[in-house]
Protein backbone atom coordinates (compact mmCIF):
# COMPACT_ATOMS: atom_id res chain seq x y z
CA UNK A 1 0.00 0.00 0.00
CA UNK A 2 1.62 3.30 -1.08
CA UNK A 3 2.21 6.02 1.46
CA UNK A 4 -0.01 9.09 1.10
CA UNK A 5 0.33 12.58 2.51
CA UNK A 6 -3.09 13.69 1.26
CA UNK A 7 -1.83 15.62 -1.77
CA UNK A 8 -3.18 14.90 -5.22
CA UNK A 9 -0.97 15.35 -8.25
CA UNK A 10 -2.23 17.01 -11.39
CA UNK A 11 -1.11 15.74 -14.79
CA UNK A 12 0.82 19.00 -15.26
CA UNK A 13 2.80 18.41 -12.04
CA UNK A 14 3.85 14.90 -12.99
CA UNK A 15 7.43 14.72 -14.22
CA UNK A 16 8.49 17.74 -12.18
CA UNK A 17 9.49 15.92 -9.01
CA UNK A 18 13.19 15.76 -9.90
CA UNK A 19 13.24 19.46 -10.75
CA UNK A 20 11.43 20.42 -7.55
CA UNK A 21 13.79 18.27 -5.48
CA UNK A 22 16.76 19.94 -7.16
CA UNK A 23 15.29 23.41 -6.71
CA UNK A 24 14.46 22.93 -3.04
CA UNK A 25 17.75 21.09 -2.42
CA UNK A 26 19.85 23.86 -3.97
CA UNK A 27 17.95 26.47 -1.97
CA UNK A 28 18.30 24.47 1.25
CA UNK A 29 22.04 23.97 0.69
CA UNK A 30 22.68 27.65 0.04
CA UNK A 31 20.52 28.75 2.98
CA UNK A 32 22.39 26.35 5.27
CA UNK A 33 25.76 27.63 3.99
CA UNK A 34 24.71 31.20 4.80
CA UNK A 35 23.42 30.15 8.23
CA UNK A 36 26.64 28.35 9.29
CA UNK A 37 28.86 31.24 8.25
CA UNK A 38 27.65 32.60 11.60
CA UNK A 39 30.07 30.18 13.29
CA UNK A 40 32.80 30.55 10.65
CA UNK A 41 32.22 27.25 8.85
CA UNK A 42 31.68 26.05 5.31
CA UNK A 43 29.36 23.16 4.46
CA UNK A 44 32.44 20.95 4.01
CA UNK A 45 33.69 21.89 7.48
CA UNK A 46 30.27 21.12 8.93
CA UNK A 47 30.21 17.73 7.22
CA UNK A 48 33.56 16.77 8.69
CA UNK A 49 32.58 17.92 12.18
CA UNK A 50 29.30 16.04 11.96
CA UNK A 51 30.96 12.77 10.94
CA UNK A 52 33.73 13.08 13.54
CA UNK A 53 31.17 13.96 16.20
CA UNK A 54 29.45 10.65 15.48
CA UNK A 55 32.55 8.52 14.74
CA UNK A 56 35.43 9.90 16.76
CA UNK A 57 38.76 8.18 16.26
CA UNK A 58 38.60 7.40 12.56
CA UNK A 59 41.66 8.16 10.46
CA UNK A 60 41.82 10.46 7.42
CA UNK A 61 41.48 7.60 4.94
CA UNK A 62 38.36 6.32 6.67
CA UNK A 63 36.94 9.84 6.77
CA UNK A 64 37.60 10.31 3.04
CA UNK A 65 35.85 7.02 2.29
CA UNK A 66 32.88 7.96 4.47
CA UNK A 67 32.55 11.36 2.80
CA UNK A 68 33.30 9.95 -0.65
CA UNK A 69 35.87 12.70 -1.03
CA UNK A 70 39.42 12.64 -2.28
CA UNK A 71 42.01 11.99 0.44
CA UNK A 72 43.91 15.17 -0.50
CA UNK A 73 40.75 17.24 0.04
CA UNK A 74 40.23 15.65 3.46
CA UNK A 75 43.84 16.41 4.44
CA UNK A 76 43.27 20.09 3.57
CA UNK A 77 40.00 20.18 5.52
CA UNK A 78 41.54 18.55 8.58
CA UNK A 79 44.57 20.87 8.39
CA UNK A 80 42.23 23.87 8.38
CA UNK A 81 40.05 22.55 11.20
CA UNK A 82 43.14 21.67 13.24
CA UNK A 83 44.61 25.17 12.74
CA UNK A 84 41.35 26.61 14.07
CA UNK A 85 41.53 24.32 17.12
CA UNK A 86 38.42 22.29 16.25
CA UNK A 87 39.99 18.92 15.39
CA UNK A 88 43.09 17.16 16.65
CA UNK A 89 45.16 14.33 15.25
CA UNK A 90 46.14 11.80 17.89
CA UNK A 91 48.58 8.98 17.16
CA UNK A 92 46.74 5.66 17.26
CA UNK A 93 47.68 3.39 20.12
CA UNK A 94 46.85 0.30 18.03
CA UNK A 95 48.66 1.36 14.83
CA UNK A 96 51.43 3.91 15.38
CA UNK A 97 51.45 4.70 11.62
CA UNK A 98 47.95 6.20 11.83
CA UNK A 99 46.49 9.26 13.43
CA UNK A 100 42.99 9.23 14.85
CA UNK A 101 40.81 12.29 14.39
CA UNK A 102 38.97 13.74 17.37
CA UNK A 103 36.98 16.88 18.03
CA UNK A 104 38.59 19.20 20.53
CA UNK A 105 36.61 20.85 23.30
CA UNK A 106 36.17 23.84 20.97
CA UNK A 107 35.16 21.49 18.16
CA UNK A 108 32.50 19.94 20.36
CA UNK A 109 31.19 23.41 21.24
CA UNK A 110 31.02 24.38 17.57
CA UNK A 111 29.25 21.08 16.86
CA UNK A 112 26.63 22.09 19.44
CA UNK A 113 26.23 25.40 17.61
CA UNK A 114 25.86 23.47 14.34
CA UNK A 115 23.09 21.32 15.82
CA UNK A 116 21.27 24.47 16.96
CA UNK A 117 21.66 26.06 13.52
CA UNK A 118 20.58 22.84 11.79
CA UNK A 119 17.41 22.77 13.92
CA UNK A 120 16.68 26.38 13.00
CA UNK A 121 17.29 25.54 9.35
CA UNK A 122 14.96 22.54 9.55
CA UNK A 123 12.22 24.72 11.02
CA UNK A 124 12.71 27.41 8.37
CA UNK A 125 12.74 24.92 5.48
CA UNK A 126 9.56 23.16 6.62
CA UNK A 127 7.76 26.28 7.79
CA UNK A 128 4.75 25.92 5.49
CA UNK A 129 3.92 22.40 6.62
CA UNK A 130 1.92 20.96 9.47
CA UNK A 131 3.59 18.44 11.76
CA UNK A 132 1.84 15.60 9.98
CA UNK A 133 2.90 16.90 6.56
CA UNK A 134 6.49 17.31 7.78
CA UNK A 135 6.53 13.71 9.01
CA UNK A 136 5.02 12.47 5.74
CA UNK A 137 7.49 14.42 3.63
CA UNK A 138 10.42 13.12 5.69
CA UNK A 139 9.23 9.52 5.21
CA UNK A 140 8.79 9.99 1.46
CA UNK A 141 12.17 11.65 1.03
CA UNK A 142 13.82 8.85 3.04
CA UNK A 143 12.24 6.33 0.65
CA UNK A 144 13.56 8.27 -2.35
CA UNK A 145 17.02 8.57 -0.78
CA UNK A 146 17.10 4.85 0.07
CA UNK A 147 16.04 3.93 -3.46
CA UNK A 148 18.89 6.09 -4.80
CA UNK A 149 21.35 4.38 -2.38
CA UNK A 150 22.24 7.65 -0.66
CA UNK A 151 24.05 7.49 2.67
CA UNK A 152 22.10 9.15 5.45
CA UNK A 153 23.93 12.19 6.74
CA UNK A 154 26.37 12.50 3.82
CA UNK A 155 25.67 15.14 1.20
CA UNK A 156 26.12 13.51 -2.24
CA UNK A 157 27.54 16.75 -3.66
CA UNK A 158 30.32 16.79 -1.06
CA UNK A 159 33.04 15.65 -3.44
CA UNK A 160 31.86 17.92 -6.24
CA UNK A 161 31.63 20.95 -3.96
CA UNK A 162 35.06 20.18 -2.49
CA UNK A 163 36.56 19.93 -5.99
CA UNK A 164 34.98 23.24 -6.99
CA UNK A 165 36.34 24.94 -3.87
CA UNK A 166 39.83 23.60 -4.63
CA UNK A 167 39.65 25.06 -8.15
CA UNK A 168 38.84 28.57 -6.89
State the CATH class. Answer: Mainly Alpha
Counting DSSP H or I runs of 4 or more residues, the number of helices is: 7
Helix residue percentage: 55-70%
- Strand portion: 5-15%
Which CATH architecture is right? Orthogonal Bundle
Spell out the CATH superfamily.
Winged helix-like DNA-binding domain superfamily/Winged helix DNA-binding domain
Report on this structure.
The N and C termini lie far apart (about 50 Å). The protein has seven helices and two strands. A two-stranded antiparallel sheet has the order 1-2. With about 170 residues, the chain is mostly helical. The relative contact order is 0.16. The chain has a single domain, classed as Winged helix-like DNA-binding domain superfamily/Winged helix DNA-binding domain (Arc Repressor Mutant, subunit A), CATH 1.10.10. Helix 1 packs across helix 5, helix 2 packs across helix 5 and helix 3 packs across helix 4. The radius of gyration is 18 Å and the shape is globular. Helices cover about 60% and strands about 5% of the residues. The N terminus and C terminus are likely disordered.
Defining traits:
mainly alpha; globular; disordered C terminus; Arc Repressor Mutant, subunit A; 168 residues
Amino acid sequence: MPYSVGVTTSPQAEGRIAFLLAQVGAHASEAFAVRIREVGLTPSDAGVLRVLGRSSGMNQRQLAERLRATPSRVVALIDSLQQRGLVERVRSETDRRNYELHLTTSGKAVSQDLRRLAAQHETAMSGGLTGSQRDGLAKLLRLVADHQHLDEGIHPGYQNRASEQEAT
